[in-house]
Amino acid sequence: MRLVTLYEFQRKYLHSLRAEGISVTPVELQRFFDVINRTYGREGDVLSMRYDTKREDYYIQTHGSVGFTYYFGKTPFMIQILPKPYRNDRDQRQSMALFLSLLNLSGSLGMSTHEINSALSRYESEDEALHELFFYLYILQLEKEAFHGMYQEYMEVEGETKTIRGRLLLSKLVKNGHMQGNVPVRYAVLGADNPLNRVLRAALEVVAENSTWRGIKRAAEHLSYNFRDVSSLGDGDMKALRFNPLNERFKPLYTIATMILFGFKKAGAHGTLHPGIFLDMARLFEDLVYHTVKRALRGEATVHQWHLLPHVIKDARKVEGNLGAVFMFGRPLPDIMAVTPSGRCVIEVKYRNLLVRLGDITRKKLVRNSSELYQIYTYSRLSGGSAAIVYPRLSGSYNEWIPDMFGEDVPSIQFFDGTRFGLFGYELSRIGKDIFVTKNGVILRENVAENLREHLMFLCGAGKGKDHGYL
């Protein structure tokens, strides 16, 4: 199967696909993308088909999601989309390390740093297919949990025995009309055939059927022995599943299993494709910034995620009621709010590229568009504090002109009325060196934690900070 590797917000022309030996029409691709967007495009498209009038050719446009999908047409191929900040890096390990770390943090997958590094080593030595990482991590996690024992629970069973056990079924006994022979009873047995294990078994079967990495298929077949007494997945098993203190340790494994099942068990519905797995990088990056700010301000401030603010319009409900229409759906909801005894700061996280093209000229920007400034200023006034925007940054290749929020020298900026405003770049190259993303949160080296804490406390009005003037 041919592999098409793209990055977020990239375009690829159909003539280049044909040059790679992939035969597919624009109509076929549009139908393909329609299914993907209906499945994963909650806030925007994952993939779209557009036409370039200058080149007189169609092209594929990726957006802000990372993941993979399969198309089984005349020429079967797989599309995988990787994080854009590392587009110019030939080593895909950096890109995959960022993606898996953010996924682990946001999705609570319970992966250790060693497990992620092990998966990345296999990714480099085998064919570089994103879906195989999910398969590998699932097998790795399943082996670990199976070693500690399969989850078992009591299930009620009805049958007939010569001796009474459990509860006697009087209704059936009366219906039979005599006490000779076996007695109808209902009793409980401890077993592994439960909804959780049926989900895990189904995902294991998908891995065994689809993986091409050495040893993964063999490991999946070996693990299947643990599910020898588990029946096939039923339609209502996922809804019937309930987590409790006894099976809570399987929750991260269940999360990966459902991703695999959702991405690979729908071929029958669409015929020529597997929807695969796609995740919104903007949401993953927002979670990273939240956990980083929370860690840096530990003991100094209370950090909220998605904190509701008052309505922008005074007496909004009254006005809306009189006019029979609404200004907006819901109240303003900033990504992060830090509250200290001396003040507060609202933080918006924007996963955006700040290098824009205006005609034939490429310009560096400090915000993607002016509406982001209007938004964060409004949030600052509603909260009664200061404001900041955080963009991703990668030294030398991506938004590198935005000040590094972990550095010592971050210029101070003010709005026209004197409200403090922070413009920060989250330096991604620090991950693994100064910033360690774990399954439970973020750990910072003391020097970068101190720098970030100083910048944020200054914004919140609770510190002197370093005033380096306006940009």
What can you tell me about this protein's structure?
The structure is a single chain. The protein has 471 residues and is an alpha+beta fold. It folds into three domains: 2-149 and 195-279, no CATH class; 153-191, no CATH class; 297-459, no CATH class. It is 37% helix and 23% strand. It is built from 15 helices and 20 strands. It has helices spanning 14-19, 26-40, 92-107, 113-125, 130-147, 170-176, 195-210, 216-223, 237-240, 251-264, 267-270, 281-296, 316-323, 370-383, 446-459; strands at 2-7, 11-13, 47-52, 57-62, 65-71, 77-82, 153-161, 167-168, 183-191, 273-280, 302-305, 336-340, 343-349, 355-358, 361-364, 386-393, 413-414, 420-427, 435-437, 442-444. The protein has a six-stranded mixed β-sheet. A hairpin with a 5-residue loop joins strand 17 (413-414) and strand 18 (420-427). Helix 3 (92-107) crosses helix 12 (281-296), helix 4 packs across helix 5 and helix 7 packs antiparallel against helix 8. The radius of gyration is 27 Å and the shape is globular. Mean pLDDT is 85; it is low at 266-270 and 463-471.
The beta-strand count equals: 20
Radius of gyration: 27 Å
| Main beta sheet | 6 strands, mixed
Strand order in the largest sheet: 11-12-13-16-18-17
Query: How many domains make up the 3D coordinates?
Result: 3
Low-confidence stretches: 266-270, 463-471
Secondary-structure-based class equals: alpha+beta
